[in-house]
Amino acid sequence: MKRILIVFLLLLFSLHAKQIKDIQFDGLVHISPEIAKEIIGIHPGDTLQASAIDKSIKKLYAQKYFEDIWVDENNGVLLYHVKEKPIISKVNLTGFSQDKIEETLEGANVHKGDIYDDGKAKTIKKNLTKKLESEGYFDSVVEVENKEVNPGSIQTDITVNKGEPIYIKKVNLLGATHFDYDDIKSVVANRQRQFAGWFFGRDDGKLKADQLKFDAERIKEFYLEHGFLDAKVSPPYLRTNFGDYSAELTYKIDEGEPYTIDHMDLQVAQDVVDNKELKENFKLKTGKVFNVKKLRQDMGNIQKAVSDKGYAFAKIFPDVKPNKETHRVDITYMVQPKKKVYVNNITIAGNARTQDSVIRRELYLSEGEKFSQNDLTDSLNALRRTGYFDDVQITPKQATPSTMDLLVKVDEASTGSIMGGVSYGSYDGFGVNAGVSDRNFLGSGIELGTTIDYSEKTLKGSINFNNPRLFDSLYSLSGNIYRKDYDYINYKEKSLGGMIRIGRKIGRHLHASLGYQYVDSELSDVADSLKNNVYYQEGRYTKSSIMPSITYDNTDDYYVPRHGMNLGWNLEYAGAGGDTKFLSNTLSAKYYYGFQDIIDYDLILRFKARASVINDKGSLPLNEKLYLGGIGTVRGYKYGQLSPKTATGDLLGAKNMAAASLEASIPLVESMQLRMVGFYDYGTTGEDNWDDIHRSSAGIGVEWPKSPLGVPLQIFYTVPLDKQPDDQLNKVEFNIGRRF
């Protein structure tokens, strides 16, 4: 702007009544002259006017590309001299967490390719200083330095020198008589420093300045959960000593007295919802101390019950009437149901690969039907159970007073996997294995896979498929073909088999199926010590079996269920032709319970149990019997090595087996969805009894539900608790591809 005033004074005397012959630009780098001419709004042939040139300069400045602009005129030719702001070609941030670079620079619009100006440097310093103070660091210094890389482009180097963290040495609750700091410390973010606060699990006392304003509300909430309706909590007062960077935090509290519930009521039309049933399930009870958390739970339960009847936009108002003299409170939940709501449009988004029909077939809501909150929840869980998505959200949006639009937004998971590995065993020698699979082939919801495993003693291969919703119907179709050649220590076995299964979904959570399996096996080179054993007879035999099954699954996720159960019954009748004749029954149960809503921490408890029994109907091959040990039964013992044995120590297998596990899973690295699990396993087995052999174990492990391979990974370290001298142990176990 330094030359503009002088130029305009000259123009006032020299440009009168002249016409513009041409317009030229000097100094343009990042925009073309054609675009610049469109911006200024002046064209050859126009009368040369100072006011028009003034407006054109302002229009150029408004683009925020330029540091300086001035105009020369020579015989009707306008020459715009411009100095463009530099473009950021690279950003370096040192002294601050690298995973927060994008978050930090976003607010200042400082990215590669952005235009730089001095105002951005001030914004960067302000943002970083504020961020550091929110993390408890004060007197921090942020420096921004620019280096020219090429004409018109710069490298921006941001250096952060963190200040000193402030530690809270004392938290005072002035006026509190019913509770002290130890009572409220679990609900606040800013806590006083404990002895050895640097140790894991101890409070380090580091100030979290951005949480101070919320801590007062958290303390107020704590009092409301204990019945203190009149409690008042002042904003926090922080007294800081910058000499040693310590602080004392004080809240002034007027507690009042706790209130007891005198009367509970619900006002809603009887034709809308069953008042009596809802009132019986109230969390708040007459004669008990008031608790605002339970009040919200009651409101949520009422909202859900009313929404299930189609009143999605119902309003729930708690009428709380405290009596300050008796310290008793009456509560009435008032329901305004409004109109019944119907689904208008359902929009699906985020599915670049998965077909719309694969998503829609899992929805229990459709256009024109009455809305139900229960249907929405079941739809959400059904989509998450497929395993096709990392995340699913269904967002209702009011269209009219009686209609609602639904946005189904999915974040597709990586369902395909390619696996390969090399192994070595003292008996098997060197081996290789490989596999290719996809749970959502071409977005169709069909699962396809093939694996091969080769070593000096083993050759195994399989091809499998599963279509859980044949032609988007309620029917399913699955099957496999496999080949196995194994050279055991005492015999050789070759098997070729296949299975096909058709099923049908019954209701929302039940699935029934019927399968048929045919296997052709041959046993050879049996050791002399086993030739007289009924289970080790050389020769070829076939198995033809019918396999009905029923499963119930209402879990809320495929990879990491937090709620629900999975129950199953599988029967195999071998004797529909073929040589083998036996009847096998297996019952299984898995139960999941997450504590996120209760303790605000993603702790998951899992209980798993399985029981199998086989009845010999005339011919029961060795490889069809039951074997305890390893992942799936009792970890820590070598896979399948716990069973009745011959006098020479050869495995005979069992006819009865049961196993159970109790697991606790917690987040380990949340950004990677890596989790840590602790567990206890117990199993028992026997030939004619259930407890001829029983073992237990405990251990810890790491589980990666969504690993880069596209399948779950698990690794466990186990301590066998009641091992016997001849037990074969496997304290470290690795598993890939099994659902938790």
What does this protein look like?
It is built from twelve helices and 36 strands. With about 750 residues, the protein is of the alpha+beta class. It has six domains: about 5-85, membrane protein fhac (Ubiquitin-like (UB roll)), CATH 3.10.20; about 85-160, Ubiquitin-like (UB roll) (Roll); about 165-255, Roll (Ubiquitin-like (UB roll)); about 260-335, membrane protein fhac (Ubiquitin-like (UB roll), Roll), CATH 3.10.20; about 340-410, membrane protein fhac (Ubiquitin-like (UB roll)), CATH 3.10.20; about 470-625, Beta Barrel (Porin). The strands form eight sheets. Strands 19-20-21-22-23-24-25-26-27-28-29-31-32-33-34-36 form a 16-stranded antiparallel β-sheet, with no helix packed on it. The two termini are about 70 Å apart. The model is unreliable at about 1-15 (pLDDT under 50).
> Judging by the overall fold, what is the CATH architecture of the largest domain?
Beta Barrel
Question: What is the count of helical runs?
Answer: 12
Q: What distance lies between the first and last C-alpha atoms, to the nearest angstrom?
A: 68 Å
How many domains? The number is 6
Query: What integer value in Å does the Rg equal?
Result: 36 Å
CATH structural class of the largest domain: Mainly Beta
| Structural class estimated from helices and strands | alpha+beta
- The spatial strand order of the largest sheet comes to 19-20-21-22-23-24-25-26-27-28-29-31-32-33-34-36
| Largest sheet entry | 16 strands, antiparallel
Mean pLDDT: 86
Ranges where pLDDT stays below 50 over 5 or more residues in a row are 1-15
**CATH topology term of the largest domain:** Porin
Principal-axes shape call: globular
Strand residue content = 35-45%
The CATH superfamily of the largest domain is identified as membrane protein fhac: a member of the omp85/tpsb transporter family
Instruction: Give the fraction of residues assigned to helices.
Output: 10-25%
Strand segment count: 36
